[in-house]
Design a protein that fits this description.
Distance between the termini: 77 Å
Order of helices and strands: EHHEHEHEHHEHEHEHEHHEHEHHH
Helix content: 40-55%
Shape: elongated
Strand content: 5-15%
Structural class: alpha/beta
Bound molecules: 3-methyl-2-oxobutanoic acid, zinc ion
Number of helices: 15
Oligomer: single chain
């Protein structure tokens, strides 16, 4: 259907929709526009800008993001009814490239909520996807809770949605229940079994309840998915969504075994991660992969010594590739003499061996009392040493 290379994976960012849905992560209108602009600039393919029917504010934000977008496709979410879909179209239609994303919960638990039989839901899917497609030629459909939907029913409704005109079928693991082998297998089976599946794009949308969202998303790509849905910092309901920075860097660093490309400029990752943390009010955990404060920091003597000799000893990515200027050698009680010498040199002090030994002893005493020894502390130690000797 497309002339996109077979190994190109589309990045669909839903920070402004699924991410913002996490309790307490509400962003202002101006903040949403700013994040959307950053996503657009970093090369995200599709930005899910919000849920236009949810509120007047969401509608306005999606409409304005649609108007300002320069490269990305702008998508809005809509439930499976005409009113939601019409409202969504009103908001996204201003975009250079608009998309309507409509969904309905297809698992037995979710079918019970609107109290629809399988046949009634199938008819609803047909009608709503057809309606969306009459408005917009780019329509995404999602069977919410797909990973807990009976195989025969999932297969059936995916076929209905494709026949009704969906151009992307997203397979959500809504409650983070699946595991990598199953995630790959599900997409593989759908592509093999559903007529018309090779004409459209399959997407994967994983939640992180069991900490497997990134692994499940990458496994789905192995199974044939060519769109990953994700958020900055993994922001999202409960334990969050697949983290954009993780999938982008995993595909970059392990291109040898996962030969798939994205259009994202990874050097913009750190900036947007920090901005999303600030505007959402959700700080990034220190040891978070890629963007955590400690992701490129080393304190132990053995690691610091290795890093000073060859950065590849303890780092599989270059800090510059995610937008950091350098690795951070944190000076603490585990640090060794080599790191101290190097740090002091950076600060403008070249000490003879005996002077370094003296400062090292004092440094260790201080490090035992303090978690981290800062540059100012080291400068003070050198000055005290000069005064004593
Ligand atoms: O997790 C989910 O199922 C969703 C859908 C709306 C795609 O976010
Ligand atoms: Zn979700």
């Amino acid at each position: 259907m497309t002339n996109r290379p077979e190994n190109r994976v589309l990045i669909f960012d839903t920070t402004l929709r699924d991410g913002e849905q996490s309790p307490g992560a509400t962003m202002t209108h101006a903040e949403k526009l700013e994040i959307a602009e950053m996503l657009d600039e970093m090369g995200v393919d599709i930005i899910e800008a919000g849920f236009p029917i949810a509120s007047e504010g969401d509608f306005k934000a999606v409409a304005e993001i649609a108007r300002q977008s320069k490269q990305a496709t702008i998508c809005g979410l809509a439930r499976a009814n005409f009113k939601d879909i019409d409202r969504c179209w009103e908001a996204v239609k201003h975009a250079r490239s608009p998309r309507i994303h409509t969904f309905i919960g297809t698992s037995p638990l979710h079918r019970a909520i609107p109290n629809l039989t399988q046949d009634e839901m199938a008819e609803r899917i047909h009608d709503t996807v057809t309606h969306a497609r009459n408005l917009c030629d780019n329509v995404q459909w999602s069977p919410m809770d797909a990973t807990r939907t009976e195989w025969d029913y999932l297969r059936r409704v995916v076929e209905i949605a494709i026949k009704a005109g969906a151009t992307t079928i997203n397979i959500p693991d809504t409650v983070g229940y699946t595991a990598p082998v199953e995630s790959a297998d599900l997409i593989r089976r759908l592509i093999a079994d559903v007529p018309g599946a090779d004409e459209i794009v399959f997407a994967t949308h994983c939640h992180n309840d069991l900490g497997m969202a990134t692994a499940n998303a990458l496994a789905a790509v192995e199974g044939g998915a060519r769109q990953i849905e994700c958020t900055i910092n993994g922001l999202g309901e409960r334990a969050g969504n697949t983290a954009l920075e993780e999938v982008v860097m995993a595909l970059k660093v392990r291109h040898d075994i996962m030969p798939y490309d994205t259009g994202v400029d990874s050097r913009k990752i750190m900036n947007i991660s920090r901005r999303v943390a600030t505007v959402s009010g959700f700080p990034v955990q220190f040891n978070k992969a890629i963007v955590g404060k400690n992701a490129f920091a080393h304190e132990s003597g053995i690691h610091q010594d290795g890093m000073l000799k060859n950065a590849e000893t303890f780092e599989i990515m270059r800090p510059e590739d995610v937008g950091l200027s350098a690795t951070n050698l944190v000076m603490g009680k585990h640090s060794g003499r080599a790191a101290l010498r190097s740090k002091l040199k950076e600060l403008g002090f070249e000490l003879a061996d005996n002077q370094l030994n003296d400062v090292f002893v004092r440094f260790k005493e201080l490090a035992d009392r303090k978690k981290e020894v800062y540059d100012e502390d080291l400068i003070a130690l050198v000055k005290q040493n000069d005064a004593v000797s």
